[in-house]
Amino acid sequence: MAYEQNLKYYRDLKNVIDKSFQDRLLKGKIEVARNIKNKGLSLKDISEITALTIEGIENLLFCCLYCNSLF
């Protein structure tokens, strides 16, 4: 029983760390996308640079601009 509890704890902790890392990567990509957009590059160029989809970039920029809910 203790082994299973320790294994669950380890997996839960690993998932939290992995999610945090992914969130930081996404936050960095969003910041890069905003900066590039402010320089006047097209969404296609931003997509190629950040590896985000054009639709994803539009959604993130809209949310950051109007909702102010990200970062």
Q: SSE layout and pairings?
A:
Elements: H1 2-38, H2 43-50, H3 54-67
Helix pairs in contact: 1-2
Q: Summarize model confidence as the mean pLDDT.
A: 80
Beta-strand content: under 5%
What is the CA-CA span between the terminal residues? 41 Å
Structural class: mainly alpha
Q: How would you name the oligomeric state of the polypeptide chains in this document?
A: single chain
Please work out how many helical segments DSSP would assign: 3
Give helix and strand order, one letter per element, not per position: HHH
Radius of gyration: 17 Å
Molecular shape: rod-shaped
Number of beta-strand segments:
0
Low-confidence stretches: none
Helix residue percentage = over 70%
Return the domain count.
Answer: 1
Q: Could you describe the largest sheet, including whether it forms a barrel?
A: none
Task: Walk me through the structure.
- The protein has 71 residues and is mostly helical.
- The chain has one domain.
- 83% of the residues lie in helices and 0% in strands.
- The protein has helices at 2-38, 43-50, 54-67.
- Helix 1 packs antiparallel against helix 2.
Write a brief caption for the model.
The protein is mainly α. The protein has helices spanning 2-38, 43-50, 54-67.
Task: Please supply descriptive tags for the structure shown above.
71 residues, mainly alpha, rod-shaped
